[in-house]
Amino acid sequence: MRSKLFMSGFLCLAVGSATGQVASHAPTVFTPAPSVGQPSAAVSGKPVVRINGTVMTDIDLLREEYAIFPYGRQHSGIPKDLEPGVRAGAMKMMIFEELVYQEALRRKMTIPAIKLQESEAAYRKTFSSPDEFNAFLQSDFHGSRSLLDSKIRRSLLIDALLKVEVESKCGVSQAEVKALYDKSQKRFQNPESFTFQTISVLPPPRTTLNAEQMKQQLARAELLLKKAKATKTSEDFGLLAEKESDDDYRVMMGQHKPEPRAELAPQVVKALLAMQPGAVSDLIQVGQFYTIIRLEKHSPAGMTKLEDVRAQLEKEIKEDKRNNLRRDLDAKLMQSAKIDQL
Fold first, then answer.
1. Total domain count for the chain?
2. Is 98 exposed, middle or buried (0-12, 13-18, 19+ CB in 10 A)?
3. Mean pLDDT (whole number) for 151-161
4. For residue 158, what pLDDT is reported?
5. Closest to 277 (Cα-Cα) out of 236, 234, 240, 229
6. Is 267 found in the same domain as 200?
7. Any residues with CB less than 8 A from the CB of 171 and at least 6 apart, and which?
């Protein structure tokens, strides 16, 4: 069976639950009934909560739990140590969604028939065949197309109200982005760093080489140096590293991420400072190993430019606003709600 999951993840929801706020989570639309293919799921349709008179069952709750922790379907349930937190988050989200739905009905919001039809058609395409869809319709909705349509309409109404009360108010101004950037100066300070590739000749693990072995080590390193000096591009150097290098970076064609100067051996720093991008070093000895470096980039210490992180900061501000607006909406709806856990 397929399920339509819109979930930012268990950790995000767990934090939201612990702090009393509702995490970002679009309506759970068509999560299949937990009993389908889940013989170990102890659900029976027993009422678990009454929300302004509307009763939700343990099946509804388990649907929400699997939306939060979808791996539970593949591993015969949710791990015992995670179950309390997942269940608490699922209950909170289930209540929130129902209150949003009831508020949409109170406002007499409607869904155009064409949008309802388009949503059902789009969902049907997620199934591999008509037979799979019909099996889902039978198991989850007793074969009733009207019951499925009501669930689709409910989800679309929840989404519509959240767009009005949350998404439409999440706009981010460039002044806000600049303010966060200025406030986060330390975060965007970058140390002097080098980006490079390596080919290394290393002794076996936990081995101290004698004089003769060191001589052999040097001979091999000098042979590799000749080959490295003959390379013309980073790809040529990388292919040689992949084939001949002893260090773990060989699986990445010798490529290192930007390495802060302070974390490199003095011998390596001295060689790098004397090189131009694209150049290949002479042999560098550090203890009992030799390395050859191809410099890609020397980055001086400085600040990451605002333009390079603008999109990231906009996303962070928007997500923060979204969470705050959802929390405020939840608090507002809860003020007049009658919730009875059964």
1. 2
2. buried
3. 93
4. 95
5. 234
6. yes
7. 318
How many Å apart are CA 283 and CA 314, to the nearest integer? 46
Question: Which is nearest to 284 in space by CA: 225, 220, 219?
Answer: 225
Secondary structure (DSSP) of 72-134? HHHTTS--TTTHHHHHHHHHHHHHHHHHHHHHHHHTT----HHHHHHHHHHHHTTSSSHHHHH
Is residue 31 classed exposed, middle or buried when 0-12, 13-18 and 19+ CB atoms within 10 A define those classes?
Answer: buried
**Whether 283 and 203 share a structural domain:** yes
What the block records as the tokens of 155 is: 């989800």
Query: Which amino acid does the sequence have at 272?
Result: L
Instruction: Provide the token pair at 229.
Output: 């000096």
pTM score over 0.85: no
Q: What is the DSSP letter of 28?
A: P
* Neighbour-count burial of 70, counting CB atoms closer than 10 A to its CB (0-12 exposed, 13-18 middle, 19+ buried): middle
d(CA 146, CA 100): 22
Domain boundaries, position 130: 10-176+314-341
C-beta separation of 211 from 224 below 8 A: no
Lowest mean pLDDT among 17-31, 112-126, 268-282: 17-31
